[in-house]
Fold each of these.
Amino acid sequence: MDTATRVVVITGASQGIGAGLVAGYRRLGYTVVANSRSIGESDDPSVLAVAADISRPGVGERIIDAAVQRFGRVDTVVNNAGIFIPKPFTDYTDADYDAITGVNLRGFFDVTRAALRVLGPGGHIVTISTSLVDQANSHVPSALASLTKGGLNAATKALAVEYAGRGIRVNAVALGVVNTPMHDPSTHDALAGLNPMGRLGEIDDAVDAVLYLEQAGFVTGEILHVDGGQSAGH
């Protein structure tokens, strides 16, 4: 166990942006604790895979405990896991509500709370949010995303102020539409039109933003928009 190497915990790490974040932090020399519900074991000894559902009480603490037991410390948490279900508000079901709030809110709460108990000076928490919080779109009805991610934006600022005295930074990255396997290629042109730049974001755009915040020691309480101008308007 090398307790001198910095350690990052990444949720939703099995594919898409999460997998990109694992690779990005490894390039920085971090060891990684990678979580998702169905993640498989890694061939990289510096990546510990923890398969677990963060919407379930107690799982967040178990992930942080696993990080400390394996690597001796936690320096950064990236709350990347999230559920997005676009629907007209009255079409949402109780099951939709439970699924979205379970991952987006309960997962954030449990992982972040456990991490803040062990993070020291120089610690960092980053949460992935959405620009739909700032720029709603009638073509993408997503009130439950705004309910949860808007709350996470507010919590980001509150925690940044609360923990600044301990030398811990707290930030968020508000994304536009990113080109991941969840979007059918037939929808790409329409989705690209949701922002002034007229293209989808790429996984590297999201990863670069998180890694910028990781290394920006004087930035805290920031909601960094990476959305092709979506939050600015149309």
Amino acid sequence: MKKLENEKEYVRKAIDIGTRYAENRGAALFEPTDSTNEKLEFIYRLLVRDKLIQPMPELQVSQQSIRHRLALWAASLEKKKS
């Protein structure tokens, strides 16, 4: 897995975009006390369910791989804006 440049920034953007997407869709209402890992996993599974990103094999799903996949997703959204 090749690390993205500015991956932490893209992960933050993915959390921001993903939480807004989930709340606007009515799928979740995040609380300030929710952990980052819970948010990331929920966003990943929601995006896979809505077929916005490709699923990973279940054995490969980990916090690190979810962070990377969501960072790639956020980076692709940023490129589409340009």
